[in-house]
Amino acid sequence: MRKPGNAADRPAPSFLTQEQREALDAALSKKRAEQPAAPPVPAAAVGDDEVAKPQLGKNPHSEGVKTKRELAHDHHLNRKGKGTGRTKKAGAGGKYTWGAMLADGDEGATVDPNDPNYDSGDDTTRAVSFHEERSTQIAMFKKAVAMLLEEYYNSGDLNEAAVSLQELDHPEFGHYAVKRALATAFDKHAREREMTSVLLSTLYNEVIAPEQVRKGFTAAIEGLDDFKLDVPDVVDQLATFICRAVVDDVLPPSFVKRIDGPAGSLAAELRHKCELHLGAKHSAERLARCWGSGAGFKFDETKDSIRSMLQEYAASGDKEEVRRILRDLAVPFFHHEFVKQALLLGMDAPSQEPFLGLLGLLSDTAEVSTSQMSKGFQRVADNLPDISLDNPAARERFDAALKAARAGAWVEEGFTGAPTTPSTPGTPGAELNGTASTPFHPNVQAFKASALDIVREYFDSGDASEVAERLAELDEPGFHNIFVKHAVQLAMDRKDRERELVSAALPDLVPRIISGDQVALGFTRLLAGLDDLALDIPDAARLMELFLGRAIVDEVLPPRFLAEAVPHLEPDSLGLAVVQQTGTLLSAKHAAERFDACWHGGVATIEALREQMAALLVEYLASGDLKEAERCLQNLNVPHFHHDFVTRSLLTAFEREGEAGKVLGLLKQLADSGEVNQTQMAKGFARVEARLDDTALDQPRAPELFKQWKAQAQEQGWLAP
């Protein structure tokens, strides 16, 4: 079996053969034929009042492109294709005419720079045109950002917000986006302010450059007087936003010292409040929750809030309190989780009538829509086999709840409650389509728990051999599909490092530990449950394409798996779309090389990183190019390892004392730009301080120099005191 990274050994630039591609196309066509085609939507169905998204970079005043028929009937256009199509002399140049009435003879004349009477001060045509176009682009950018923020507040989709802002393709306007986000959040609730802080942290240095972020906050400070008219507590809010940004390493601590204003001004008051917040005891922990919990935005905390709400309801029976808390959460798109948890608690309670009464009330008042109610019932139906392991009466109680829901019209008309995803196989011989009647193995829950522990430990250690040993010790080869499924699911919710670890581990485990059939079963279950997974991981479809393509390229799965998986998927499911897209990607040229690098080399050895950092430092000391050094460090994409670069830089400064100023200048630049955050900077200094005694054996002046440099860094504001 090939190991990941052996792209040079692969013979074909297109990974799928023509026969494999035809087999996949045939399977997809057969699956689509199972679903009747939707009727075409007439053009008139699109409302005239629909507003199209602004497209930046285009002249909003330009006319549409003419068709050939329109051009043929345009009598101003030269039939030989010459000319601009405009009337001669603006309509005043025909025979027997006196010219345009009341027209100045020089009007419309082209200004000639070679004319002796030419005055450059009067020639403002080009400047006006540039400023007009720039003003139009800025106005459209602000409008697009406003739409983007409203959509983000409704959906909570961070990835979509980042992609939408990046697609505007105006990085030089990033400060407008920051200011608009702050201004919008001032008029919102704590939920939206928390979402804004998280959004700025996510966009920082990925979509919006650090200098643009600082410029945006500076613009908000300059507009304090205007904000104060509409938002009386704007100083408190902006101070909290700034301090939260400092804690999140979005702004450097020195930013607060740069807030300047005369005594008694709003800027002076803002700076004083920021200093109080940051100087308080346990300020980092307090500011991390300055807007309250992430309930209503973060999935885990929203789930916890819903669970606590329902548990309190089970004890008190206060339906009005549940309605109030549910409204405050402001997550109508996530009400299916509320329905699911209410049903599960009702199944475990002595009587589920109180929970059914609560669902009925919320349905009657339209606080929970029928689509969300149906989705919540469906999620419980899909997991009934697992739920029945712990609660044998689960099926009976679910049927009673479903009967009540149909009678009260809580769910959509025609809703059956039948499972839509394959059930968990209890034995090695279980069918993929979930029709096997073999009872569940009693050890399946224990294996799931062990599989999750193995994957989490692997993410920490990176030792694939330990994974193989643990799986062999469990001695449950029929459950290995569960390990594959959970490994990929957990990696989807992590970063590229963990995704690369999972993709790299599978070739080592297959077929030595995990059989090919078990891998295929695990990926099929992932594809079948992708619609539910996308509720928790919005980017699940794209990530699944990369995991699936990488597995095929690494020969963990055969290419024919794509065609074989199609019959087990629903015609309109997300999993089917992923299979089709993966086939397209594998059919492209150099597919193997692209999938080999799909996680951007997420796993790098510590030794390799240290060598690259050492080379970066040597090159900087030779050239003195701060921007190039910052760019190279950014390209390494290891912000969690920047403390090692700080440590190495200080040790180099001890050895080359004459160039210590250049080294400290580099560290200051990296801190001010936000490339190295305060946590990593402080950690690097702490590591050097801890080994000063050993360093002094080779560099006797090291303790004295370190004390001097640390005081200098704290005084300049790029190292936290």
**What is the CA-atom radius of gyration, in angstroms?**
32 Å
The helix count comes to 36
Strand content: under 5%
Q: Low-confidence stretches at least 5 residues in length (pLDDT < 50)?
A: 3-13, 41-73, 101-108, 421-442
GO biological process, one term: negative regulation of DNA-templated transcription
Keywords: Cytoplasm, Nucleus, Repeat
Subcellular location: Cytoplasm
Protein name: Programmed cell death 4-like isoform B
Short note summarizing the structure:
By secondary structure, the chain is mostly helical.
Structural notes for this entry:
One of its GO terms (cellular component) is cytoplasm. Residues 1-92 are annotated as: Disordered. Residues 60-75 have a biased composition (Basic and acidic residues). Belongs to the PDCD4 family. The chain is mainly α and 721 residues long. The protein has four domains: 128-288, Serine Threonine Protein Phosphatase 5, Tetratricopeptide repeat; 299-407, Alpha Horseshoe (Serine Threonine Protein Phosphatase 5, Tetratricopeptide repeat), CATH 1.25.40; 444-596, Serine Threonine Protein Phosphatase 5, Tetratricopeptide repeat (Alpha Horseshoe); 606-716, Serine Threonine Protein Phosphatase 5, Tetratricopeptide repeat. It contains 36 helices and no strands. It has helices at residues 18-33, 68-72, 125-155, 158-167, 174-186, 190-203, 210-222, 224-230, 234-247, 254-257, 266-279, 283-288, 299-316, 319-329, 335-348, 353-364, 370-382, 384-390, 394-407, 444-461, 464-474, 480-492, 496-509, 516-528, 530-536, 540-553, 561-565, 574-587, 591-596, 606-623, 626-636, 642-655, 660-673, 678-690, 692-698, 702-716. The longest helix is centred in the first third of the chain and has 31 residues, at 125-155. The two termini are 54 Å apart.
